[in-house]
Amino acid sequence: MKALQPQVIQELKERKGRPGSPVLSLYLNLDPANPVNLRGGYKVSLDAMLKDLESQIKDENELRHFQEDAEWARRKAEFHIAKGRSLVLFSDVSESFFFEEDLPIRLANQVWFGESPYLRPLLEARNEYERYGVVLADREKARFFLISMGEIDEISDIFQEPPVKHRSAAGSDHMRSQMVFQRRAAKWSEEFLKNVSDTLHDIMVEYDIDRVILGGPEEVTAELQRLLPKAVVARVVDRLRMPASAKTSEVFEVAFPIIEKIEREQQSTLVQDLITTAHKSKATSVKAVLGFDATLDAINQGRVYRLVYPTGLSMNGYHCTSCDVLLDHSPSDGRCPYCSNTLLELEDIVWPASERALDMGGKIEEIRSAEAISMLAGVGQIGAYLR
Ligand SMILES: [Zn+2]
Asked: Do residues 86 and 106 touch, judged by C-beta distance below 8 A?
């Protein structure tokens, strides 16, 4: 997930392109949850977006640059094996600049051709998902991990041998030397953990970490927690017993349930707030809506700011290919109530509705918590905050 690392975003931001040699930026939604994508539907969307943009370019030199970048992007999409839900591509073939990354989240399809890579969707995605820092420490080494969007990365590690080794001393000196050793070892260990604590603070700032999990032997995490600066302590959500040598995948397995629990609580709060806001809305200023009818109405009006629905929700409905409205039921004559065009029946209307919300710059919240899902079930399953 390098595309969401601050240094990578910084580098992309600061990249100096050659004037007259623009960069193609492409965000392509290839989520396998959309059946159309399983049949390679995203290639069709890509082609349409590229052709549309190409038709707007008048300058011959620019057009030539665009065509070679577009060709590269088409080839990438053609042979791409999706590892995520969205594909991000930046390219300037003439400058040998290429960037390719799968993201585990859904982003709206979009394509840009300009002086620099178009980063806004990346920056927004970064802001939207909480980042968890995990430190795994014993008295000799510490490792740092970043978990966000359901993925883990090890960010760096410090490895230090203690400067004092235990050695057996003979005779009457034994007790004394034992005490000296213990004092020195304790001192060393505290210094080491202070170091870890400082590094953790730096990493928290550097990676914009929202919450922290401490892992390691119980007495180490307890001591570490005491040593942490206030700003870091306030973000500690849990301490985990585990060996400092644990594999990255093991760290993820132990830490992720804690993150999921926090997310479940956040989702319940969100859904509760959505319901309260919708119920409190006055006819003159509607801030939130519930149920398919009202939500699709808001989608059709381009007013959805945040669409909320249970993950996997599917519902059949209708689409007017002429004026593009989405409806949950059809009038008895099967015609669009706005333009009288014949309505097209859709197996699922939730996907195009969420696509539309993303396209209008809105957010989508797929609710996974059972508690929040049952709250939604009581109020029409789907809802939205409005602009
Ligand atoms: Zn219509």
From this structure: yes
Distance (angstroms) between ligand 1 centre and the Cα of 319 equals 8
Quickly name the fold that domain 2-128 has: 3.30.960
* Distance in Å, CA 334 to ligand 1 centroid: 11
Distance 299 CA to ligand 1 centre (A): 14
Listed by start position, the domains of the chain span: 2-128, 132-246, 265-386
Q: Decide if pLDDT at 162 tops 70.
A: no
Sheet-wide strand order for 211-216: 151-159, 141-148, 132-137, 211-216, 236-241
Distance 352 CA to ligand 1 centre (A): 16
* Total-model pTM: 0.75
Spatial separation of the C-alpha atoms in residues 307 and 270, rounded to whole Å:
11
Same fold, 132-246 and 265-386: no
> From 3.30.420.60, 3.30.2350.10, 3.40.30.10, 3.30.200.20, which CATH number describes the 132-246 domain?
3.30.420.60
**Amino acid code (one letter) for 300:** N
Q: Residue 292 Cα, ligand 1 centroid: separation in angstroms?
A: 18
Higher-confidence position of 172 and 252: 252
Separation of CA 315 and ligand 1 centre (Å): 20
Q: How confident is the model at residue 99 (pLDDT cuts 50, 70, 90)?
A: very high
The reported pLDDT for the residue numbered 166 is 45
Predicted local distance difference test score (pLDDT) of residue 1: 61
In words, the CATH class of domain 265-386 is alpha beta
